[in-house]
Amino acid sequence: MKISNRLLNILGDGSDGWDIFRKAADMVRDGIDVTQLTIGEHDIRTDQRILDAMHQATLEGHTGYAAIPGIFELRQAVAERVQAQTGEKTTYANVLITPGGQSALFAAHIAACNPGDRAMYIDPYYATYPGTIRGASAVPVPVKARAEAGFQPDAADLAAQAKNATSLLINSPNNPTGVVYSRDTLEGIATLCQTHDLWLISDEVYDTQIWQGRHITPRSLEGMRERTLVVGSMSKSHAMTGSRIGWLIGPEEVVAHLMNLSTHTTYGVAGFVQQAALSALKLGIGFEQEIAQPFRRRREIAIRCIEQSNVVGMIPPQGAMYMMLDIRNTGMSGDEFANALLEKHHIAVMPGESFGDAAAGHLRVALTVDDQRLEQALKTLVRFAEENTR
Amino acid sequence: MKISNRLLNILGDGSDGWDIFRKAADMVRDGIDVTQLTIGEHDIRTDQRILDAMHQATLEGHTGYAAIPGIFELRQAVAERVQAQTGEKTTYANVLITPGGQSALFAAHIAACNPGDRAMYIDPYYATYPGTIRGASAVPVPVKARAEAGFQPDAADLAAQAKNATSLLINSPNNPTGVVYSRDTLEGIATLCQTHDLWLISDEVYDTQIWQGRHITPRSLEGMRERTLVVGSMSKSHAMTGSRIGWLIGPEEVVAHLMNLSTHTTYGVAGFVQQAALSALKLGIGFEQEIAQPFRRRREIAIRCIEQSNVVGMIPPQGAMYMMLDIRNTGMSGDEFANALLEKHHIAVMPGESFGDAAAGHLRVALTVDDQRLEQALKTLVRFAEENTR
Known about the structure:
Shape of chain A: globular
Structural class of chain A: alpha/beta
Number of strands of chain A: 12
Oligomer: homodimer
Order of helices and strands of chain A: HHEHHEHEHEHEHEEEHHHEEHEEH
């Protein structure tokens, strides 16, 4: 039987970029002590108070179908948080609750694009972006953000691809680069979207992890409110990766129509998980800062380690839980380096190539192990780079 | 900004068929005591043992990302259950865990159809079917199963639409009709699929609710294993509607590719929900029978009520938690009848029209309130039909 082309082609060239991650996981299964700096996941569990609130919700009877676009209280709480963070008026009717940020990313592309439409995204990119666009039967159009420009996308590069495009997907704070887009960059993007009548899909799941500068949501820029779909999530901000809960913020009309997509793709999100998310939001901004704190601290440790090297370069991350290392001086590709480092030193980092051509010759290090282990791993990585420079 | 046509058109004519359900919910919110016989949801909560197992799983640390196609233990447990129920060899590699049966239905259509492909389904149908097909950018092609044939689809009617079609979606035990497809019907469908090279998508979420005859999965029929995608769920069998967990069973290759779809649409299912489902399956077949028992009992009560009427007809349900009433003798449409009954007697039932043209002049009654209340509501319904026959 013939599987549909769109499913067969979802990965494009056939790799999802997670080979190293799986190789490391296999080694762990074989009893090898691997330092895992691959995946963007906290080294803590979800907070006990949130888990207890979820259990309490089940005891109170939240075990049946929940409202498909999300329960009112959670939509309202998300709207209030967005409004408080961004100053932009937001009500429950602007909020669609989804089973995770990835689901909101997919929904945003379904809302923006018809099959065959050109959907732009910035390279380096989070690993699922091109597949999400292909999964939505649209055509992924990468636009490089150059290492030399600190991975801020360039207005001229964007404009060169914007003709006949339907949407542009951006991500600030950025995974994998740790870059926070400047006001200049965002205003250039806003102008571009208005000039070329593009939807802007803004993935802001790292909005609580800002180390330098300020997070600006493009939805708050002039003329952007009606053409911006913001993707949010509890995963990174509240250490709830495994709960699969996020949201899309957009114009009321889009949210109303996307409710129909939810009815036909997920039938909503578990009510008890929504109650857990509601309780987590009620823990307030102090809790979000607590969750972000270890990454702030480890970022400083990592910068100190890398600064000492003449071979390994970096752009100090301005946000998110990653650091991008430049290992082009070694003469190795990111793939080669990451594989050799894993085999020789049992340290797993993601090759830049997993995140696109623009990140070739780089490594993404997730700051997701304890401080001491991170420091040791980075020192080993630097030594390995220096010993293996061609 | 222009929302994509495919999102705008997901509902086709603009109604999702749930107007009466929402009207009843509004009345409840206004303090009116409505007897809700609309939605297919148990009048019990999820079992405490399952909820406790979920809480325990969170305490044991299942709060991070879980394996995208499902945790091995759950895939394995679902495979064993399917094999035990159907005799058909099934391993974990045939099982994709999804956030609910609806998600598996969507995934199945993505796997089978490219955009623009013709996807057949049987009318009367579960309310989301045509929208699921449209959501997957395919073209819904209904084939009527006639009330006069006991709502078993006819081979000639199917063959008339099968040319140039890509897939056929069936549902037995059937929502809304309560019909269980006979071996003859299923063998006719199997022949049709092989003759016209169709994927068969078999929604079997009511497979534990059989009151007459026997459930046969078409995957077990000769030549069908490689072209059948089975949709399953914990919702109806284990009273876990609100947990949003289900699965797709199919050829290994399809499951492997659908894992890529999951990566790009949902990023998997919460690990603690998967642990809850695993614990629920371990409660065994006795537990499934316990969950089904009230519907068996209420079906008998309902049959006794309707048998006494000269106006209201029925086909006694062979499976599932519904009964289809024939009110064509009244001269009213299902919509008219359901609206009038809700307004006058505060009893909410679904008009047949919500489930397609073939169910016009019918009502779907969900057997989802306690026995006494059901009996009283049906007696009132019968009296109302008799008083209002034109």
